[in-house]
């Protein structure tokens, strides 16, 4: 998972674990520009097409 999120230029913000049930969650922040993507050695994962909505879920 770390290599995937790193290749997508995501920054790890926090890892939390619920004290009651032990469920954990990691929160990541995606970049606001394509600067990091443009500097990648390998184009994997590939960027979306320009026509795609960047805010679509």
- Anisotropy-based shape: elongated
Percentage beta strand: 15-25%
By secondary-structure content and strand pairing, the structural class works out as alpha+beta
- Mean of residue pLDDT values: 87
Got a strand count? 2
Radius of gyration: 14 Å
State the helix count.
2
> How many strands, what sense, and barrel or not for the largest sheet?
2 strands, antiparallel
Please give a structural write-up.
It is built from 2 helices and 2 strands; from the N terminus they run H-E-E-H. It is an alpha+beta fold and 57 residues long. It has a domain of 30 residues.
Essential attributes:
single chain; 57 residues; alpha+beta; methyltransferase; Put_SAM_MeTrfase
In short:
InterPro entries: Put_SAM_MeTrfase. With 57 residues, the protein is α+β, with helices and mostly antiparallel strands. It has helices at 2-7, 35-38; strands at residues 11-17, 24-29.
């Amino acid at each position: 998972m770390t290599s995937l999120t790193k290749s997508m230029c995501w920054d790890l913000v926090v890892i939390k674990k619920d004290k009651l049930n032990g469920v954990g969650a990691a929160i990541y922040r995606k970049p606001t520009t394509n600067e990091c993507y443009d500097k990648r050695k390998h184009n994997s994962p590939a960027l979306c097409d320009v026509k795609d909505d960047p805010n679509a879920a």
